[in-house]
Write a structure and sequence with these properties.
single chain; 137 residues; alpha+beta; GMP Synthetase, Chain A, domain 3; 2 domains; 3-stranded antiparallel sheet; 29% helix
């Protein structure tokens, strides 16, 4: 196995994960609605954040390779949970970015790249992905 990350349960519903190549760490806590303190990202928060990070990264790669302006990009993320079983049932992400210099074709290229990112394609089809794009001038 080619290990790229390692994790350790620290107790009290908290875990620490290390990215081996960089040494960067992520702490997770159980959410307050599931016996936790909610003092860090929950595992389901990371799932939703991974989708946002992936789609903006793929948009950035696409923008770079096609010389498309990709500036002042922000995301807002909403996670919707279901019960029985407890799971993520929906993720809404609003991608806001500068529309300066972006014609309709460039916007379509970037949006298509976002919607076909690896995390989006890895999530179970029962998880609703509501991805919206907003452009500021």
């Amino acid at each position: 196995m080619n290990t790229t990350m390692k994790g350790r349960y620290q107790g009290d519903l908290r875990c620490e994960y290390v990215h081996l190549a960089s040494g960067e760490k992520i702490i997770t806590d159980a959410p307050t609605d599931n016996q936790g303190k909610g003092m860090a990202f929950s595992p389901t928060d990371l799932l939703c954040t991974s989708l946002a990070a992936c789609l903006t990264t793929i948009m950035g790669i696409t923008a770079r390779s096609k010389s498309i302006a990709f500036e002042d990009v922000h995301t807002a993320i909403e996670k919707r949970m279901g019960t029985e079983p407890r799971r993520v049932i929906g993720i809404t992400i609003i991608v806001s970015m500068s529309g300066k210099g972006l014609d309709q074709k460039s916007r379509q290229i970037l949006e298509h790249a976002a919607l076909t990112c690896p995390v989006a394609k890895s999530l179970h089809p029962d998880i609703e992905q509501d991805i919206r794009f907003e452009y500021t001038e």
